[in-house]
Structures are given as C-alpha cells and as structure tokens.
Design goal:
The structure holds 2 protein chains of 2 kinds. Chain A has 10 helices and 13 strands. Chain A is of the alpha/beta class. Chain A has a single domain, classed as TIM Barrel (Alpha-Beta Barrel), CATH 3.20.20.30. In chain A, the strands form 3 sheets. An 8-stranded parallel barrel of chain A has the order 1-2-3-5-8-9-10-13, surrounded by 6 helices. A two-stranded antiparallel ribbon of chain A has the order 6-7. In chain A, α2 crosses α3 and α9 runs parallel beside α10. By secondary structure, chain B is of the alpha/beta class. Chain B folds into 4 domains: 292 residues, Luciferase-like domain (TIM Barrel, Alpha-Beta Barrel), CATH 3.20.20.30; 91 residues, 2-Layer Sandwich (Uridine Diphospho-n-acetylenolpyruvylglucosamine Reductase, domain 2); 88 residues, Uridine Diphospho-n-acetylenolpyruvylglucosamine Reductase, domain 3; 182 residues, Vanillyl-alcohol Oxidase, Chain A, domain 3. Chain B is elongated, with a radius of gyration of 31 Å. The chains are: A alpha/beta, B alpha/beta. At the A-B interface, α3, α4 and β7 of A face α2, α3 and β7 of B.
Chain lengths: 324, 763
C-alpha cells in the first residue's frame, strides 16, 4: 500500500519557492538588475542568474549578484549555477559568506562543474574530464563548508586531487546556514547531490523526456542520500522552467496562467519539486507569473497536501503502521 | 599634482571587517556624503576577518551614486585575471563609470599558497603579474574586435572574446614598491598607489623617477600616470609629527607631497567617521586651495589619453584642437565606446573622430572643427539607422547628435511638439501616447528623428496623415558657415522648403517643431501568406491598397523561396480606427489575396507598434546594397520584374510601402520631396550592387523617383532620380547660397550651382 502511495505522489515536504532565472545581459547595463527588483516587487522568493564568465555579452555574475543584492531588500539570490572551474573555491566561499552577511542572510550557493571546456580554457581556466570536474565539485563543496564552519578550530587542510588547501583560515561564517544547490543530470552527479547537496537544480529544457524524467533522477538522489546516511528529504528538489503564456493550451507551460498553475502543482506533487524558477527577461512575464500562477499553484499544492496526508493516514491505519 | 597636472582628489581606505559589515558600508556612504572622491578597500582574500573585497565594492556601488570605487589593491594571484577583467567591466557598467581598478602582484605568499595557488618568488610574481595585466587590458579592449590569444608562462588566453565594454576608460592603478614593478607601471599602468607608511624617505621621488623613465622609454607622457598615496594620521589639537596635529598642519604636511612629488590623490586610511569628516571638510578644501593657488592650470586638467589609445588615431585630424566643450565626450578609435559608435545599422565604419555635442552651441563648435578638415569625410548622425550609412565613414569626422534627444510637448492643444534630432522615434511615440498624439515616422522605433525628418518619413500612418516632413512646422538649424537660423513658413522659407526632403545637404537641424496628429487606438494586422505566384500577389495587393480608404496603410515584405518552401509574403497593415468592424473591413480584402499561413490582428497603440527596436548598438559591416523606387501603380511589368528578382534571390529583403493618400495632397513644389503622385515605395536589399543594380535599373521606366533614405547606390545619377529637374535646379541654387563650399557633401551631395558650371566649363 505504501509503495502505491509514493508512486501516486512524491513530496519531500519543503515549502514552495518561486523565482526567476534572468539572463545577465550587460546591455542595457541595469536590465538584469531591474528584473531582479521587479522579481522582488512582484513578491517572488528568489532571483537567480546564470554564470558563463567566458560570455563577453554578459555581466560577470558574482558582481551582478552582489550589486542586485545591494539594490533589493527581501528577495533571496543565487547563481544558477556558478561556474566552479573559473573560481577559487576558498575565495568563492568567502564571497558567499560576505554577501550573505551584507544582505542579512539572503544568499545561497548554486554551483556546477562547468560544461563548456573550450570556453573555460579560452579564459585561462582548466580543461577537466567529466570525472575530474565532479571530483573538483566534491572537493569545493567540502572546502566551502569548512570555510563557513567557524565552530571548528584549526586551519583547513585538503590534499585533494584538484585542490591543495594548506592551512587556509576558516571564516567568515555566513549570516545563515547557506544552502548548496547543484545542477545535475547524470548518475554520478545525481549521486553527488544525494551525498552532499542541500538542493538539486536541474533545468526543464535539459530533460529530454520532460518532467517525467524527474522520477528516475529523484530515485537516484534518494538512493545515494540513503546510502550516505542522509534523509532524502534533506535535499530540496528545484526546477528551472521555461514556457510561454498563451490564450489557448498548447502543452506543458504553454497556455493560460491557470493551466500553468495546474501543471506546476502537478509537478510539485508528482515529483516533489518545491522550487520553480522561471526563465524570464521581461517584467510583464515576471508579474504575470507572480500574480496569476504562483498563488494558484500554492493553493492547489496546499489542498493536495492535505488530501495526501489524509490518504496516508488512512493507509497507515489500514496497514497497521508505517514501515519507513 | 603640480608636476603631473592632475586635479586633486581625496579618498578613504576602509577596513573591510567581516564582523561589522554594516559599519563598513556606512563609512563608504559617509565618504560619499561628505564629498570625497574615492572609496577604496584593501584585498586580502586569505584573511577571514575581511569581507571579500570585490563583493563589498559591488555592494557599495549599489548603496552610493557618485563616489568612485577601487580595490586597494586587488590580489591578482587569487583572482582569475580574465574573470577579474569582466567583473571590472560589469562593476563599471553597473556603477555608471565609477570603477578604478587597483591591482597588485600579491605579497603574502604563504597565505596565498594556503588557498591552493602555486607559490611564486617575488621576481616570478611580477612576471606573472605582467601577463595578468596584459590579460586584463585585452579583455577590457573591445575596440580590437577580435578574440584574444595570450600565450604566457603563467597566464594563457585562447581566443577569449573581449567584453563587456565598460562604461568608461577604467584606470588601472598598481600597488608597487619594487623597481621592477615600478618599471612595469611606468610602461603599462594609469596610476601608482603607494602607501606612505611603507615608503622609505624620499620614496615617492625615487619611485616617480623610475616610473617616469619607464614611461618615457615606452613612448608615454609621465603625466598619463596619476600618483595616489595612502596616508594615515591623527587629528589632534597640538602640532606634532607628520599628520599628527590640527587640519592646518595636515595641509602643510601634504602640500609638498602634492607640489613637489606630484601626488594627485590622497587616500586616508581610517575607520573613524569623525576623522573622515574632518579630512573631507577641513583638509581637502584647504589643500585644494593651496595647491591651485600655485598651480591653477591643474584645476581643469585636460583629458590625457594613454599612448596606446593615441596610437590608433587617424591621419589628418588635429586631435589636440578639439574644442574644450567637446573634448571630454569625444570618442577616438582608441577610446572605450568606439566599437559602439563607429558603425551604422547596416554599414561598417571607422571614423577617426566622433564628436558628441550636447546642445546647439556645441554643434556649432563641432561643425567649426569639421570645417577645418575639408579633405576628410564628414558624417552627421542622429540615430545611425540610415540604410546608406553615410553618417559614418572611414578616417573622417562624425558629428553624433545622439545627446540632443529631447522630446518636449510644447502645447497639447495645438499638438506642437519639439524634438531633438537624436531622439528615437519609439521614444517619441511613447512620450506622445499619454496625450493621445502620434507622429507617423517610419516602421522602426530605433530610427533617429534627425535623418528621417529631413529626408521624408514614410510611416504607418502615411496614407492618413502624410509624410513626417509634412508635419514639420519649423526647424532650428546650424548652417555650413556656423550661423544658427530658424526656418519656417515665414522666415527663411527657401531653407524650410529645402530641409524637407534634402536637409542633409543644408545643415544640421538641432531642433524640430512638429505638429502631431490625434491618434487613438489603432488596428494592427500581421498576415503571413503564400506568395508562390509573387507577381500576381504584388499586383493584387497594390490594387487593394489603391482602392482602400486612407485609414489603411500597409507594408508588404516578400521573402524568397527557400528549402522547397514557396515565397512568403508578410503583409503588415495599420488601420487608423479603433472600431473592430472597420478594421476587419479593411483587412479582409488583404487576407483573401492568397492562402493564409498565420495571422494576428489586434487593437493596439501607435506607440505599441513602434516599441520594436532591438537593444544594443549598431554593428553594421561592409557596404550595404539597397535600391529604392517610387511608383504610381504596381504594373504587370513592375510586378514581373520584382518577382524575378525575388525568385532568383538577387534580393534577400524586398519591401513595398504604401504612400499616396495624404502624401499626394501636398503639391509637388511645396517641399524638396517632390514625387507626390506615387502610391508605392519599393526597396530591395541585395548582397551587392553588381548583382542588384542592373536588375533594378532595368525597372526604372516603371518607377518615377526614389527615396534617398532607402538607396545606397553611390552613383551621382541618383540625385536626379530623387529630385525632378525643377526641384534640383532650385536645390542647387540654394546649395550655392547656403553651403557654397560644400561642407555637407557626404550624404547624396547636391552640387552647388556655380561649382558645377565651373566644372562643365573646364571639360
């Protein structure tokens, strides 16, 4: 019975977050900042920027993120996701902590292995194999957590395959417990998410089978988490989404706002996604998403969560107890 | 200061304490409030007691508006140099040109190496820094317009794209003490940051001597390099040791550093708000006064370009004589921002100097400067969208009117609007919309006012409301001799006639008075249709337009067949009515010409249709090939000829605009635009004149006249096509009167009457 129930619904129990994924275009210079402010004003929870430091038409994302944090008051911010190979992991961790301190705890660390190795090498960065890039991310996450952990004494030492840290000092500690969100698709990376991350941040556009691919990927993360002795619910499942508002329904996230809300709620309930980050580069789309989609999606999910807990309660009493 | 002629500046050096972030930010905000010029932050990424310097500077940029920002100095071994350069461009853009980039080679190598960076010896670290500096310069130089390769021992770039372009020329300041670093600084950098407490006696003079010698050896003027000094001290009642005393003593102590050692910027190392206020309020003004009393010329120091920028100057331009009012904003080939201004919408350009006047008087000065260069091309640019691209050139002067972009509703009752030539039509449409007004311009919002409103203006409301020039009620213009005149129906009437259709030959209009029309919501249709029988489609469309009421204006674009798809017609139409029944009635006949692939019909606003310009700057390349023709009817011969050009792909973009209607109400001789009986304007864009030209020329007998704004043919015959004989004769007489020496010669030149006579007599 319980197996059926989890097939019916996946829910890791996180509150829902809604945010934007904004192109960090450098022209006009403040366009991306204006959209971050628009995201805050529309009432969204989160603003994120992609990070491609080799892309000359874009702002350098950390600078943009820091400036955008300075121009906003409430909204949370993250790279989506920051490019590790072109950043020193200790400096990155201190930068995250610094901005978290300056912004009163509004920063999370979205991080990825890097993907476009020719472009990274063009900038003077390393060219890593897939295996090396995963090792680098694994080491960098460990380094970041050590930098932020000022409760321990002594320096940070890591004789890693990629990074050799020799007594770097700890601190500053961020203002809040910073989440580490990782973009991942392939088995080894999904395992890393299950073992080390606080959040999983894939993009809908990179899922060849659409949202239904999420089930199998979730399962890999869950398995790796359990093998590492972690509760799978410790890992927030997030999704970068893209779509189009239109008057008639034409498919997934291509229709009227009410239909978007239904589809997002379905994705939250069926696949346990608790953060939806919309790729949007104009204020009207952001406002439409925030006012017409988000409240409806929240309401539908809340209703279904009540229903789910009632069904589960009924199942538990019928089977004489919850095995897990 | 006195030695190097820089304006005196004052800054602070704030400790980025991670245990008191808000206090740090408050000090930066205070520094701005008390009038200091610069806030600087040290960078020691290995210290956990410090906030990350770049993050903090970016945050401070968001909390301040005027004060400049600088790392003092950025630790390059721990900062990926190419990323640091892009970050610098970003912070400069976000802060609107307030970044000064202090860089250092790194000193505390045990601490640096702890973060996983290979340890370098002092000598190696400077070699590595030299390469990093080359990387930073290359990434910030977007004028080079090519990807960068640097194959250094420590740093490599492999076809990295430069950019983004910063908001201003970011000065690169080096923290330096060792002779090797000072020599590098003299050859490469824009400023020296020294710290007084670390300097030996006579340290500034010694350092200056090394820097100046290295600068001269590199072909530079030592005055290109600003000298900045970090200082620390104490305000106290009694006079004591160096910078330990009352503010008057500080002034006495600092004066010789400014006058004898040439320090241009004093940076106070302090986290005490009271000390920062006293430094700004009691030291800075008194020291300025004392210094400028001795060296008044430094108070308004001229802009000094780096030798590397001056090396890209073009021959024949007296750069040092650019008027003072224009010098600060002038853009040369070596300047930041040149890549954004050099080219036009379709035509590539490489002007030697771009002058950017902000008002009429500066236009007069810019023109006077241009007159002193009679052998160089001269472009006058408003929006830079002109198809022929005559507003840019190769090696000449461009007067860019982009800053004269005012939009003023003079009187809503009489619908009179005053526009600067550099305003863009989409901005005009947006500004007029709240008043229920509109001016029919062209079909693209990014077009500038000046070029279009002196040439014609065939827009979305042409049949209902006429050409843009038909609404011009007066112009203020700068003539070839520099005089400023007003031309309207009572004053300088000849000029007023000429400027409406042939304005580019007569002067620079600095202000237009235009009577707008009352325009409410309008119908807007976009129909995508099968045009496989292209000739038939063109004729049917033409016949429908000619028969339609004036409230319909339609533009037709035909794309050639490709990938086994037939030719596609894109019919765009505006109906000047908000009544759905009227809109449907006008659009219905167009929609039945041929099978419809897709369509959208909406009720919108004129401003809504015009808000269509792409972001970014013009990046035209090469020489565009486009031809224009006006026609009364789409005859079978004309339709067949055009259809053939489309099907054999001699043109990649073909458009017809409906004219006629209100345009034809104006007599031929009322303006320099004379082809009032045309119902259609045709234009074809091709890949070359060799291919497009003969086919177009073969259709000339089907057309009568051209619209210069859509023709790029350099042959002088186009002038006679554009202006009928009587009009041209009058234009040449007026040209002789208003521009006898042919100052305005590079945009479809009308020869002054006498000049041509002389030329003929010598034949």
């Amino acid at each position: 019975m319980q197996q059926e129930a989890s097939n019916l619904m996946t829910d890791y129990g996180h509150d829902l977050l809604f945010g934007t994924f904004i192109t960090p275009t450098a022209m006009p210079a403040t366009h991306a900042v204006d959209l971050a402010i628009a995201s805050e004003q529309a009432g969204l929870d989160l603003v994120t920027f992609q990070d491609h430091p080799y892309q000359a038409a874009f702002h350098e994302t950390w600078t943009l993120l820091s400036y955008a944090a300075s121009r906003t008051e409430r909204i949370r911010l993250a790279g989506n996701v920051l490019n590790l190979p072109l950043r020193n992991p200790v400096v990155l961790a201190r930068s995250i902590a610094s901005l978290d301190l300056l912004s009163d705890g509004r920063v999370e660390l979205g991080i990825g292995t890097g993907a476009f190795w020719d472009a990274i090498a063009a900038m003077g960065g390393p060219r890593r194999t897939p295996g090396e890039s995963i090792t680098a991310l694994r080491e960098a996450i460990a380094i970041a957590r050590e930098v932020w952990d000022t409760s321990k004494s002594g320096g940070i030492w890591l004789d890693g395959e990629i990074y050799q840290i020799q007594g770097a000092k700890r601190g500053p500690a961020p203002a809040h417990d910073v989440d580490i969100w990782v973009g991942a698709y392939k088995p080894r990376m999904l395992a890393l998410v299950g073992q080390l991350a606080d959040g999983w941040l894939p993009s809908l556009g990179y899922l060849p089978g659409g949202p239904s691919d999420l089930a199998q990927m979730n399962a890999r993360i869950d398995k790796a988490a359990e093998a590492a002795g972690r509760d799978p619910r410790a890992i927030r499942r997030m999704l970068n989404i893209n779509g189009q508002f239109s008057s008639t329904s034409r498919g997934f996230l291509n229709g009227p706002p009410s239909e978007w809300a239904e589809q997002i709620a379905d994705t939250a309930i069926d696949y346990g996604i608790s953060a939806f980050i919309l790729a949007a580069d104009d204020a009207q789309t952001i406002a439409l998403f925030a006012t017409e989609v988000v409240p409806r999606a929240r309401a539908i999910v809340a209703d279904r969560r009540v229903l789910r807990s009632e069904i589960l309660a009924a199942q538990v009493s019928a089977s004489g107890g919850l095995s897990r | 200061m006195a030695r190097y002629g820089h304006e005196l500046q004052f800054g602070v050096f704030i400790t980025p304490s991670s245990d008191a972030p808000q206090q740090v930010v408050d000090l930066a905000v205070l520094a701005e409030r008390v009038g200091l010029d610069l806030v600087t932050i040290q960078d020691h990424p290995y210290l956990p007691t410090h906030l990350d310097t770049w993050t903090l500077l970016s945050w401070i940029a968001g909390q301040t508006e005027r004060i400049h920002l600088a790392p003092n100095v950025l630790n390059i071994p721990l900062r990926q140099p190419a990323v640091a350069a892009r970050a610098a461009a970003s912070l400069d853009l976000l802060s609107q040109g307030r970044l000064e980039l202090g860089l250092g080679a790194g000193a505390y190598w045990t601490a640096i190496a702890a973060l996983g960076v290979p340890r370098l010896s002092p000598g190696e670290s400077i070699d590595a820094f030299r390469e990093a500096l080359a990387v930073v310069r290359a990434v910030l130089d977007t004028n080079a317009e090519r990807r960068v390769r640097i194959d250094g021992a420590y740093h490599q770039l492999d076809r990295a794209a430069p950019g983004p372009t910063p908001a201003h020329e970011i000065p690169i300041l080096l923290g330096a003490a060792r002779p090797k670093m000072l020599r590098l600084l003299g050859a490469e950098a824009d400023g020296w940051i020294a710290t007084h407490r670390f300097l030996p006696p006579e340290g500034i003079a010694t350092g200056n001597a090394i820097i100046d010698a290295a600068a001269r050896e590199a072909g530079r003027d030592p005055r290109e390099i600003r000298r900045l000094l970090n200082i620390d001290g104490r305000f106290s009642a009694e006079r004591g040791a160096f910078l330990d005393g009352p503010p008057e003593q500080w002034v006495d102590d600092l004066l010789p550093l400014a006058l004898d050692d040439g320090v241009g910027t004093f940076i106070l190392m302090s986290d005490d708000p009271a000390a920062i206020e006293r430094f700004a309020g009691e030291v800075a003004p008194a020291l300025r006064e004392a210094v400028y009393r001795v060296a008044p010329e430094a108070q308004h120091a001229p802009r000094r370009r780096r030798a590397a920028a001056r090396a890209r100057r073009r021959d024949g331009i007296t750069y040092d004589d650019v008027p003072v009012s224009l010098a600060a904003s002038a853009v040369e080939p070596g300047d930041v921002g040149y890549a954004e201004l050099r080219s036009n919408y379709l035509r590539g350009g490489s002007p030697g100097l771009i002058l950017r006047p902000e008002n009429r008087d500066e236009v007069v000065e810019a023109l006077a400067f241009a007159r002193r260069h009679p052998d160089l091309p001269l472009g006058i640019r408003s929006g830079g969208h002109g198809i022929s691209g005559r507003s840019t050139n190769d090696g000449g002067i461009v007067i860019d009117l982009g800053k004269l972009n005012s939009i003023e509703i003079v009187d809503p009752a009489t619908r009179l609007v005053r526009l600067g030539p550099g305003a863009r039509w989409m901005d005009v449409a947006e500004a007029l919309a709240p008043y229920g007004l509109a001016i029919s311009s062209g079909d693209y919002g990014g077009v500038g006012v000046g070029g279009l409103a002196t040439a014609g203006g065939i827009g979305w409301l042409a049949r209902e409301h006429g050409l843009t020039i038909d609404h011009v009620r007066a112009v203020e213009m700068v003539l070839a001799d520099g005089s400023v005149v007003r031309a309207d129906e009572n004053e300088n009437t000849d000029l007023f006639w000429a400027v409406r259709g042939a304005g580019a030959n007569f002067g620079i209009v600095t202000s237009f008075e235009i009577e707008a029309d009352v325009v409410g919501d309008i119908g807007w249709a976009q129909l995508l249709m099968d045009a496989s029988d292209t000739a038939d489609f063109l004729q049917q469309w033409g016949a429908i337009i000619e028969a339609a009421p004036r409230d319909l204006t339609s533009f037709l674009i035909v794309s050639p067949p490709r990938n086994n798809q037939p030719a596609i017609a894109w019919v765009l139409a505006v109906v000047d009515s908000s009544d759905p029944a009227v809109i449907v009635d006008r659009i219905q006949p167009l929609a039945t010409i041929a099978p419809l692939y897709d369509h959208q019909i909406a009720i919108t606003t004129y401003a809504g249709i015009m808000a269509n310009a792409a972001q970014g700057y013009h990046s035209g390349r090469g020489e565009p090939a486009a031809r224009s023709g006006l026609a009364r009817h789409i005859t079978p011969e004309l339709a067949a000829g055009v259809a053939e050009m489309i099907s054999n792909r001699s043109t990649y973009y073909f458009q017809i605009r409906s004219v006629g209607g209100a345009v034809s109400d104006v007599p031929d001789d009322a303006t320099a635009w004379a082809h009032r009986d045309a119902n259609f304007h045709l234009t074809a864009f091709g890949t070359s004149h060799q291919r497009l030209g003969p086919l177009w020329d073969a259709l000339r007998d089907q057309m009568d006249g051209i619209y210069l704004s859509f023709d790029t043919d350099p042959r002088p015959e186009r002038i006679a096509d554009a202006f009928p004989p009587a009009t041209l004769e009058r234009l040449r007489e007026l040209k002789q009167r208003y521009d006898p020496t042919n100052v305005f010669r590079d945009n479809f030149n009308i020869q002054p009457a006498r000049q041509t006579v002389l030329a003929e007599s010598t034949d």
